[in-house]
Amino acid sequence: MIARRSNRCKVLLAAAIIFAASSAGLLNADQANGAPTSKNADKKAPHTGKQKVKRKMLTANQALKLVESRKEVQDFLAQFRRPRQGATAESKPVIDVERDGNIWNVHVYESLPDHTATFNWYSVDRLTGKITPMIKE
Length: 137
Description:
Elements: H1 2-23, H2 29-32, H3 60-68, H4 71-78, E1 92-100, E2 103-111, E3 116-125, E4 131-133
Antiparallel strand pairs: 1-2, 2-3, 3-4
Signal peptide: 1-29
Organism: Candidatus Obscuribacter phosphatis
Protein name: PepSY domain-containing protein
């Protein structure tokens, strides 16, 4: 009786493992149904569209570089390389980046001693790199 119960447990455990493996996509349909597999068969299962494709997400520094390379931002930054009317020595361009889910919010502004002056905010998609200015001209 004990040996019989032990074999039944082994069978149930094997069935549970096969079910879990096939549900997780580790076995193809033939393997899950118990069909023998060829020794020469490719061990890698074909892509079924269910596997997750790991995409490389943009880093904060990459988002900053993308925004910094835009023409209007280059023109804004160039103002600080040459003397301009009303500029103070403490006036500096600043670019801040903060994460909001799958978006990088990039704030381009001028820092002054007593306040800041926003040039623009940009939304950068972490997956695609698409840049959207938040303040439309």
